[in-house]
Specification:
Layout: H1 15-20, H2 26-32, H3 55-58, H4 71-74, H5 95-98, E1 103-107, E2 110-116, H6 140-151, E3 158-163, H7 171-180, E4 189-193, H8 196-199, H9 206-214, E5 218-224, H10 233-244, E6 247-254, H11 263-275, E7 279-284, H12 299-312, E8 320-323, E9 332-333
Parallel strand pairs: 2-3, 3-4, 4-5, 5-6, 6-7, 7-8
Antiparallel strand pairs: 1-2, 8-9
The protein binds pyridoxal-5'-phosphate and iron/sulfur cluster.
Length: 339
């Protein structure tokens, strides 16, 4: 007979092992997806940003397809070496200044912690390619500076963990933070921005779920999925476990040329996410980061796409198209130009 005791739980592979087993050699990745001939078109030195992709994510790529939307997110390309006007190393404003102590508090009610500098995957379009934050930035010294800031400002009701990927931290480290929030009654929500439930679903283990379920806070997890095919049964399972622990799931995507810049790809992403219990939140216009210009979708086309998407989907499955602009009090909506 099967009983519901904790010991009867499925044993899952340790996520740190899965993390360490990630593919870091582009030639090996190309062999794995049946495209060895592309090895001659790799940029020298990976264009200055290492390839990194967990094996489970690579397994979702279509064999023999050089346009695979998952492959294109991680494979170093010669186009990254192009110097394109307007695409700069520091695309979001002075990153160094912004990340002093790892606390960004520029929006009302919400404080954002750069909780970890690590990611399980290296996304080619990410500003992180030029700013590999050190590890455990806000987490340093038992989160001392972060907790002090949050404690002393009763206008903060939501604490946002971002990075890098905050779930790169151990659950024990995360619990240190929430233990420190116990006597901070004005913080009622914890939001986590993470790509791990999708790229390394092993991370959503019993320990993490138990921690989340135990928190006397409202919990939001913002996933980062750009294409419907990033979902598979292991991701569905991770999402279900998170929802069962009382976590509201949202998704943010980046609009990427050749990957998800048509109405079918965006509608499929919204529908597939919702099937896993995830609601669309933001669709980001690319940060203008050097090396990512080939992913850019012009605002004109992006706003057209949003109109097509509103016609194709129920309103609650349509994300908000936004761009991050340094010094603004919120994300800026990208609106169609009046004609
Ligand atoms: C994006 C962002 C937030 C969260 O903004 P929402 O619109 O609530 O998602 C908070 N703080 C900083 C610094 C941000 O960049
Ligand atoms: S911060 Fe997000 S988008 Fe950037 S490399 Fe890490 S997982 Fe990818």
């Amino acid at each position: 007979m099967i009983t519901a005791s904790p010991s009867a739980r499925l044993s899952r592979p340790d996520w740190r092992e899965a993390w360490r087993a990630a593919i870091t050699d582009p030639v090996q990745l190309l062999d794995l997806v049946g495209l060895p001939e592309l090895a001659s078109r790799l940029p020298a030195d990976n264009a200055g940003f290492a390839l990194r992709v967990p094996r489970g994510f690579a397994a979702r790529m279509r064999r023999g397809d050089p346009r695979d939307p998952l492959l294109l997110q991680v494979l170093p390309q010669l186009a990254e070496l192009d110097v394109v006007e307007g695409f700069v190393r520091d695309a979001v404003g002075d990153m160094d200044a912004k990340t002093a102590h790892g606390i960004l508090h520029k929006y009302d009610g919400r404080a954002l912690l750069i909780a970890s500098g690590s990611c399980a995957i290296n996304c080619r379009y990410c500003f992180r390619r030029h700013f590999p934050y050190g590890d455990e930035i806000a987490a340093a010294g038992q989160w001392r500076d972060a907790l002090e800031h949050v404690r002393n400002d009763s206008s903060i009701n939501e604490l946002i963990l971002s990075g890098g990927d905050p779930l790169a931290l151990t659950t024990r480290k995360l619990a240190e933070l929430t233990d420190g929030l116990k006597n901070v009654p004005h913080v009622t929500r914890l939001r986590i921005h993470s790509r791990l439930p999708v790229v390394l679903p092993e991370r959503i283990d019993d320990e993490l779920i138990d921690w989340l379920a135990s928190l006397p806070l409202q919990k939001v997890l913002v996933l980062h999925v750009n294409h419907a095919r990033e979902f598979d049964a292991s991701v569905d399972d991770a999402c279900r476990r998170l929802r069962d622990a009382g976590v509201t799931l949202l998704n943010q995507a980046v609009l990427l040329a050749g990957i998800n810049d048509d109405v079918t790809a965006q509608a499929d992403l919204a529908e597939r996410g919702f099937a896993a219990g995830v609601l669309p939140y933001y669709l980001h216009q690319l940060d203008k980061v050097a090396g990512a210009a080939h992913f850019e979708v012009p605002d004109e086309r992006a706003t057209e796409l949003m109109i097509e998407l509103r016609n194709a989907l129920p309103g609650y499955l349509v994300p908000r198209l936004v761009r991050e602009v340094a010094g603004e009090p919120s994300k800026r909506p990208v609106a169609s130009r009046a004609r």
